[in-house]
Structure formats: C-alpha cells, structure tokens
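Please fill in the sequence for the structure shown.

STRUCTURE ENCODING:
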C-alpha cells in the first residue's frame, strides 16, 4: 500500500515552496487553512504537493502562539541525529531520469551527493528545512537470496558490516533562489 502523503512543518514557507516546485518539480495541488485549536488561538496552512504520481508531500505553515517558533523542523538534525538518519526518498524510474533530477538540483543552486549502493543509485540534497531529500533508482532486482539474507541480518546480534559506499559530491555553480 502506498502513502497518501507525508506531512512536515516548515519555518520558511517561501523557501520551501520554491524548493519543492522549482528544484523538485512538484506541483502545489491543494491548500487548506484552518484554526489550530479553536477560534482565536491561531491558524495553520496545510500545503499539498503532487510528487508526480507517487503520492503527496505536505507542509504545515503554523501561525499559533501556543506552538514554539524556535523548533527545528529538520527531521534528523533537529533531534540530534545525523542528517541521513531520517530522510525523504523518492523513486526515480531510470538512471537517465536520475541524471535529469541531479541536473535540475544543480541548476537550482543545490549541491548534490551521488552514491551507487550496488543495488540502487541515489542522489541527495537538503531542503530549506534541513531535511535530506533523495531521488533513488533501483538498478538491480531484489531476489529471493536478498530476502533470505535480510532475515538472517535482521536476527544477527552484530551483522557483518559492508564497506561504506563512496559519495561523489557535485557542487552547484550558483546559490539557491531562496
């Protein structure tokens, strides 16, 4: 079963909108605005972006005195975790499409890390909220042997460690628009 949407908070709606419409090429398809806790206590906007047929991503633009304004919306570093721990990964249908996504990010002023994981290739950048965003292309089918090994590694007290893949970092020639 697929996701309908994932919802996250933003502190900078303008920068978030520019990133997800221009750098990610997602379309804003719905905005809902409503009170947060009843009349007079505040309001919120819930913005929904179509990810291209793979569900929606939504952002909360919060305007309520009872909600802290100094919170960090980064879903990893805001919790003291490495940026890669919690992230958003979007499927890409082929390596040519992945290359187009990489070029779009670079043209929009975002640095891009690229990693060949052996069974998939990924590109990464961060959004204006400090959230790591990934486009991923599966390059090898997952086999029965992969599934069997997954069960073994799940149960291993200390699984054998793979060599960490090397990242290629592509630097943007200009700064992001927002």
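FILLED IN BY: designer on duty
SEQUENCE:
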């Amino acid at each position: 079963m697929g996701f309908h949407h994932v919802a996250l908070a933003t502190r900078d709606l303008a920068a978030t909108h520019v990133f997800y419409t221009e750098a990610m090429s997602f379309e804003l398809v719905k905005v809902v605005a409503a009170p947060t806790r009843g009349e007079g206590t505040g309001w919120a906007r819930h913005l929904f972006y179509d990810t291209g047929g793979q569900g929606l991503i939504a952002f909360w633009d919060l305007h309520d005195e009872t909600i802290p304004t100094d919170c960090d919306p980064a879903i990893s570093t805001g919790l003291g975790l490495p940026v890669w721990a919690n992230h958003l990964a979007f499927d890409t249908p082929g390596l040519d499409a992945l290359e187009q996504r990489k070029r779009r990010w670079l043209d929009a002023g975002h640095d891009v890390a690229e990693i060949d994981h052996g069974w998939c290739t990924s590109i990464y950048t961060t959004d204006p909220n400090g959230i790591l965003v990934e486009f991923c292309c599966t390059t090898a089918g997952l086999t029965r042997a992969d599934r069997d090994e997954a069960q073994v590694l799940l149960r291993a007290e200390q699984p054998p460690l793979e060599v960490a893949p090397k990242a290629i970092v592509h630097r943007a020639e200009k700064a992001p628009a927002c």
